[in-house]
Every structure is written in C-alpha cells, then in structure tokens.
What does this fold into?
Amino acid sequence: MTYQQIKEIIKCVILLCILMLVYFSFKKLYFINLALIGIIGLSIIYYIKINKIKETTLCLIVKNNMVLMMLRNKKKHDVHLNKYNGLGGRVEKRESKKQCVLREVYEEAGIKLTNYQYVGKVVFKNFGYKLGKEVMYCYVGYEYENEIGFCNEGELEWVPIDKVMSLPLWEGDQYFLMNIILNQPFNAFLHYDEDKVIDYRIMKR
It folds into this structure.
C-alpha cells in the first residue's frame, strides 16, 4: 500500500469520526467524543506527516543480458539531466505502486509489462537538491507487449548489464541498481547532500 492510498483511508477515517462525533453529541456520550477527538487529531498529524513524502517507482527492463536505460537529456530543468536512469515516475493520487509502474513504463516507452517483479524500495533523504523524504519502489521487468517507442524525456538505449555501472549515474544509484537488475530483494536508505551521498544502508530482504 502506498502513502497515497493511506491518505485516502485517513480522509475516510476522519470523516467517519466527525459523523460519529455529531451523533454521540446528540446522545450526550461525551466520553466517546473525547476518544473520537483524539483519533481525529492523531489522524490529522499523521496525514500532514505523510503528505510531505514523495513516492515514485523505478523499473529496469532486462532482456538478453541487456538493460533498457534512458539518458535524460530532453528537458532543460530535469533534475536527472544528462544522467542515465530506468523508467518510472511519481505515484499519483489513489494509485498503487503497481499501477504507477505500469503506467509510467507505458508512458515513457510505449510498452505494456506482462512479466515484472517488485524487488525493493529505496528511501531517499534530501534527494535532487531538495529537502524532504522520497520513497522509490523498484521493479525489474522481463517481458512486454508492443514495440519500444519514442520518449519525450530522454533517449532509450539497450545497455549491456556489465556496462550499466560505468554510465553517468547518480552516485546513490550505484549502490542498488544491480540488486534490481539481478532481482535480489533489498531495502535501502540514501542520504544526499546536494549530489553527494553522505550516508547509506543497503539491507537484503
């Protein structure tokens, strides 16, 4: 479950508690109202906290010992400008991570994934010259429908697996990309200071 989905659940919980608060006020059951007010307050605090978390997906397509990579070179203000990356993007409202990765892969390469697996997640702190937290859900894809098409964000290129790590990458990508490519389940934490990693942890799952 993504934070976007959790936010929708919290909204429903808050609305339900408010309706119950009105009902029990008429019944003069004020001790229940106090509990409901506490639940509403905690829900709002948690909502505010997770609302600041950015969620994204990343998918690397692997085929015949090659990996589909994108050189991000078509958008002037792209934070990934002139770096290689996989396919992916931001999780939208009410969207699951699976729905997001399928949509992003289709939007960026014109292909529909038919065989793919979740590998792990990376939690970033202060990534992309911005303060805050980002959670990236990582997938590896093996089979797809349609032909790879044109991408307006960068140039798509098949790269031999043993050449991926020599590409222009974000420093932190070097710590986990091979886990995705080789389908080795993991969780990772990366703390950035501008474009430099100042702390990281990679944990096998």
